[in-house]
Design goal:
- This protein is mostly beta strands and 155 residues long.
- The protein has a single domain, classed as UDP N-Acetylglucosamine Acyltransferase, domain 1 (3 Solenoid), CATH 2.160.10.
- It is built from no helices and 25 strands.
- The protein has a ten-stranded mixed sheet with strand order 1-2-5-8-11-14-19-22-24-25, with no helix packed on it. A seven-stranded parallel sheet has the order 3-6-9-12-15-20-23, with no helix packed on it. A four-stranded parallel sheet has the order 4-7-10-13, with no helix packed on it.
- The radius of gyration is 15 Å and the shape is globular.
Length: 155
């Protein structure tokens, strides 16, 4: 499929009611669930799953095997390396899910990072590889480790 320079690999699945911005590339075995809104010039390599009602800004890229839970928000100009998981926790009593508040703009997330439910990553922050983020990360901060801990301000 090629529309407005959108490239969707023939082995990808894009459900109904999805908006994809111009210049975006979706690789093999990616799944884009209903209600997702993806900005322009984004890139998904392979085996990514973008669940229901996720919003992704412009110029954001994903390495392979990333999973973004339903209703999450990811900003512009963000780079997410392979193996990233943005988790949610089902509330079994109300049939709802607790999801992160969001990931800001100009964020760099290393490989094999997990962002736990209910937390956010601020603008211009960096998360080191193999980290598990269990609290809010402020703007312009560098964090790493499992659990991730503040390292320094990002200049």
């Amino acid at each position: 499929m090629k529309k407005e320079n959108i490239e969707i690999h023939h082995l990808a699945l894009v459900e109904n009611n999805v908006i994809i911005g111009a210049g975006t590339k979706i690789g093999p075995f990616c799944i884009i669930r209903e209600g997702a809104v993806i900005g322009s010039n984004c890139n998904f390599t392979a085996y990514c799953e973008i669940r229901e009602n996720v919003t992704i800004g412009n110029n954001t890229s994903f390495g392979s095997r990333c999973t973004i839970s339903a209703n999450a928000h990811i900003g512009n100009n963000t780079i997410i390396k392979y193996g990233f998981v943005l988790t949610d926790t089902p509330n079994l009593k109300s049939n709802s899910h607790k999801v992160v508040k969001g990931i800001g703009n100009n964020v760099l997330i290393g490989a094999n990072v997990t962002l736990m439910p209910g937390f956010s990553i601020g603008n211009h922050s960096v998360i080191g590889a193999c980290s598990q983020v269990r609290c809010d990360v402020g703007e312009n901060e560098v964090w790493f480790g499992s659990p991730a801990k503040f390292y320094k301000k990002n200049d």
